[in-house]
Amino acid sequence: MIGRYVISIVTGVAVTLTLLFVMQLLIESGQSALTKPRERAQLDFVRVKRNENLNVQELTPEKPPKPPETPPETPPQDMDNIDTDAPTIDIARPTVSTDTNIGGPGRMNIAEGDYLPIVRVAPVYPTRALSRGIEGFVDMSFTVTITGSVIDPIVVQSTSSMFERAATRAVLKFKYKPRVVDGVPVAVPGVKTRITFQLQD
User: Fold this and answer.
1) Taking the domains of the chain in order of start, what are their residue ranges?
2) Which 8-state DSSP code applies to residue 74?
3) Percent of the chain at pLDDT above 90?
4) What 8-state DSSP symbol labels residue 46?
5) What is the distance, to the nearest Å, from the Cα of residue 67 to the centroid of all Cα atoms in its chain?
6) Cα-Cα-Cα-Cα dihedral of 124, 126, 127, 130, to 10°?
7) How far apart are CA 102 and CA 91, in angstroms?
8) Which residues contact 187 (CB under 8 A, 6 or more apart)?
9) φ, ψ for residue 129, nearest 5 deg
10) CATH code for residues 50-61+106-201
11) How far does Cα 75 stand from its chain's mean position?
């Protein structure tokens, strides 16, 4: 019975001393952690400004033919040297047609020829693509109407869907000289163009 008490007392003293030692270690390490200055990481943000460079393929219209040179003026006749006794020749008057229909809407004379671009609007670079530094192109197909406007734009191919809306909006602002056949303007479907989105460092 006495042996059990002795063992219990010895064990209790050992556990108590061990706990006190561990607590002393924790207190010392805690004080060093509180007094030691903390290292803070610093982040530097560098913002690089990019310049937009939108390349839109331009179709250069052919130069119109050079107008014929104006013939020199005929010098005035000398009325004093006309011979009044010279024989006369009776010539019948020529027949002149009075048809004034010159073709075209509103009786306007429209030159024959294919459609030609007049106004090509550069698209607005999409914000998401600009912030991510993404470049690409969009191939568009559309119809040129008899008034030279653009309808029914269709995306044939694109490198990213982020560019499709900007390319479609730009194409709808294009203006063309319409195609004229036999003096009458006609619509031209299936006109294709490529709009390139490119960033310049």
Assistant:
1) 50-61+106-201
2) P
3) 35
4) -
5) 37
6) -100
7) 30
8) 143, 144, 145, 146, 178, 179
9) -65, -35
10) 3.30.2420.10
11) 60
Pairwise CA distance, residues 186 & 86, whole Å: 59
Query: Residue for token digits 């006609």?
Result: 186
Q: Are strands 150-158 and 175-177 parallel, antiparallel or unpaired?
A: unpaired
The single residue listed with the structure tokens 């197909």 is 141
Q: Are 115 and 177 in contact (CB under 8 A)?
A: yes
Tell me, what's the pLDDT at 187? Answer: 93
Bridge partners of residue 175, in order along the sequence: 119
CB atoms within 10 A of CB 179: 19
The list of the chain residues with pLDDT below 50 reads: 91-110
Q: SS in 3 state form for 3-27?
A: HHHHHHHHHHHHHHHHHHHHHHHHH
Terminal C-alpha separation, the chain? 92
Distance CA 162, CA 164 (A): 6
Tell me, what's the pLDDT at 94?
42
- For the stretch 119-149, pLDDT in tens is 998 899 999 999 999 999 999 999 999 999 9
Taking all residues of the chain, what is their mean pLDDT, rounded to a whole number?
A: 76
> What's the pTM?
0.45
State the amino acid at position 171 in one-letter form: V
Locate tokens 């459609």: which residue? 115
Report d(CA 162, CA 173) in Å as an integer.
19
The pLDDT assigned to 8 comes to 86
* pLDDT tens-digit series, residues 98-124: 333 434 444 344 456 788 899 998 899
